[in-house]
Amino acid sequence: MKIAVIGGTGLIGSQVVNNLNAAGHQAVPHSQSTGVDVLNGQGLDEAVAEADVVVNLTNSPTFDEASPAFFQTSMDNLLAAAGKGGVGHFVILSIVGTDQVPELDYYRAKALQENILAAGPIPYSIVRATQFMEFIDAVLSWTADGDTVRLPATPIQPIASKDVASAVAEVAAGAPLNGIRNIAGPEIFTLDELGRITLSHKGDNRTIVTDPTAGMFAVVKGDVLTDKDAHLAATRYSDWLS
Hints:
Layout lengths: L1 E5 L4 H12 L3 E5 L13 H5 L4 E4 L10 H18 L4 E7 L9 H15 L4 E6 L6 H7 L1 E2 L2 E4 L3 E2 L4 H12 L7 E5 L4 E2 H12 L4 E4 L20 E2 L4 H5 L1
Parallel strand pairs: 1-2, 1-3, 3-4, 4-5, 5-9, 7-11, 9-12
Antiparallel strand pairs: 6-7, 8-10
Helix pairs in contact: 1-6, 3-4
């Protein structure tokens, strides 16, 4: 199949392209660096022309109140181009629990993206992933202050980006789900526990302080960012660290 991967040069997109091409498909990466702009529509018609599948892995440049507008505009433009191009399957990557955390602008934005796709005319698949292992360092940096890092005890189920890419590629090569597939890492940690494991592995002597008000994930209620019934990936956090 010919598969247009929009956002195909990023962390997940580049791996999805490699996986699909290795499986014998013709996966073509598109991004701003290749002349495709999902906000003004530049290059979109050409990018999806004759594609059997579109995989949209573009992301809002911010996590704030501007993110819903990004997903509204980008999805409207992409769906219009895909409709003109006769695309038969449209895939996006979302987040486990995204519809359960309305307090976060970015999670509301991703839920909006899902709803736009589901309401559209093109057969679709939504892959929802838990938090990427590659993002843990960034999460630690958000609430670092001198010798301490403050983190809430929010349960998360980290997954390696390579496992996310593998799942997205598998779904893209298959029949449309017209629904959602949840994928997750094999282990559940509280965020503060994961912070201690990460710093210990790195030989970082900073102290993790459990603070229920610290950082973006402080507003998350319960265990909505985890899913024991998801398709579980193989990579454990300790193996990824090493």
